[in-house]
Structure formats: C-alpha cells, structure tokens
Hints:
The structure is a single chain. This protein is α/β, with parallel strands linked by helices. The chain has 6 helices and 12 strands. 23% of the residues lie in helices and 27% in strands. It has a 7-stranded parallel sheet with strand order 8-7-6-11-9-12-10, sandwiched between helices. A 5-stranded mixed sheet has the order 1-3-4-5-2, with helices on one face. It starts with a strand and ends in a 5-residue tail after the last helix.
Amino acid sequence: MNLILFADSELNVNKYSAKTECAEVSVFLPRRDVRAVHLLKVLHKSVGSCFDAGVLGGKTGSGVIAKITAEGLLVTLNLDADPPPRTPLHLGVGFPRPIQLRRLLRDCASLGLAAVDLITTELGEKSYRDTKLLDDGGARSALIEGAVQARDTRLPELAVYSSLSIWLQKDFSQRRQGTKSLSKKALGTVLLAADNVRPQGSFSELEPFQKDVTVVLAVGAERGWSDREREQLESAGFTRLSIGKRALRTETACIAAAVLVMERMGLLA
C-alpha cells in the first residue's frame, strides 16, 4: 500500500468530513485490519512512525502511529493536501472476463480515470455480466486497490449498461463529433473507439489535444464490435482507431488505448 486509506465514516465526523477542511483526527485500527497488518508486518512501523494517509473521496496527508496495543493501533491523521487531479477520460468497455475485470478496474483507478462503464456488447460473452464482483464488493475493492497504488483518494465512477445503444444515449458532457481529421487538434469532448478490424485511422495518428479536452473512449469485448455496433458508434460521432495489428485482451486494449490518449493529452510528462 502506497497510501493508507480510510473511509469518512471511520473518522470523527465532528472534526472531519471529506467535504470540509482538514483537521487532526484519531482512528483506531484493529490488529486484524489489513491496514494495521500492512503497517506493522510489511512497513515495520512502530510508535511514532509516520505514513502516507488519506480519506476516501477527500484529502491526503500523513498519519502517525500514536499507540500500539494488543487490540490494535491508534493512529493520528493530519490531512491537508489535495489528491492528484482526475484524468478527464471516460471509458466504456464491453464486459471482460471477471478475472480481467478486477485487474482492469484496479488499473483504471491507478490511472485516475473519471469513469468506467461496463457494457453488454453483441459479441461479448453474456455470462461475464453475471460476475459477482459487482455485488460482493469486489469491484469496489479493486478500485480502492488501484487508488491506493497511485496515492489517490478518489475512485472512477462505475456503471453498467445492458447494450451499446443504451450507453450511447448517455449525456456525455459537451458531446461533439469525433475528430474527422486526425491532423487537427481536438477541442471539447472527443469520442474515440478502439477497433483493430475496421479502423478509420490509428491512435498513433492523433496529434496532441489542446487543454481541457475530455475524451470518451469505447473498447469492445474480446471479440470486438459487431458491424451494427460500428454503425452505432459512427452515428454517435465516434471515430474508430486501431491500436495495432495484434489481437489484445480487453484489459490490455483498454490500458494501451488509455495511455496513448493520455500521452496526447500531455498527462504523462
């Protein structure tokens, strides 16, 4: 854990809220809590030791172990810094295998994506949408794991859609046509879709975007897009771009395309 993350409900609400300015608060961690185990067994912290801390959805800062007992740890938090800025990238992806979904959500949170939408696509395996990760807290745990890795406190918004056509009805902020000419710098919101089968261009042809651009990125499931879905994407203003000639796992395609977009947004400097 690069950041010991606490829920707002664990803190003294009279002194601190994720929506207010920071204040110094104390939190008790039971011995069996995974965060207590990490502090003591992995980081080898002791009384007086400092560590990076944050509150879910709120500030980051530092923590100090004030007391260690047989029951657990008493830690004091001083949260006075803002978390990293969000990446203005909204991902819509066809349901991957559950084992891939966990990794994908973790990595999307690490990259700071604004939102992840899971979509039932025509060529995707329908059984994947029945994953228990969305009901048993596994998806949220994966998002938190990714945020902790990146020293972030905020999570991508997560939503599920029963078809691409329904997802395309979503009111993306400042929706506009995808870049018809890849040689032009994009403004506003840009709609892009990964498609290695029938692309209209390549991610490598995108020039750097101007400031304050928001990108909506669509990635199909393992078997990609159907012809009807390609027509739906094009009608909605998405430009279909290739990531290369190799057949990629859904999670790999998502991260590869996201990183290529982030590079064009100037976020990797």
